[in-house]
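Per your request, structure below.
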């Protein structure tokens, strides 16, 4: 049975060939599409970035205190 069509937008990018081959290997081993792996990687990257930006914003506006760690 065919996969249902995804409501998405196409994105054409040029990858370093070693990275592309690595993506192909992971895709085959994981049994997942390259699209799914790329979407998950982008989501993880952007979630981390946005979380870090929110922490920076909170520090800058004083809504969070910075407490030194005891080393």
């Amino acid at each position: 049975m065919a996969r249902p069509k995804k409501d998405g937008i196409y994105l054409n990018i040029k990858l370093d060939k070693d990275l592309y081959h690595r993506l192909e290997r992971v895709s085959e081993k994981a049994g997942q599409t390259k699209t799914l792996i790329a979407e998950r990687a982008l989501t993880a990257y952007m979630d981390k970035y946005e979380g870090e930006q929110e922490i920076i914003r909170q520090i800058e506006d004083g809504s969070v205190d910075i407490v030194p760690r005891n080393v």
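The mean pLDDT is 92.

Regards,
D.
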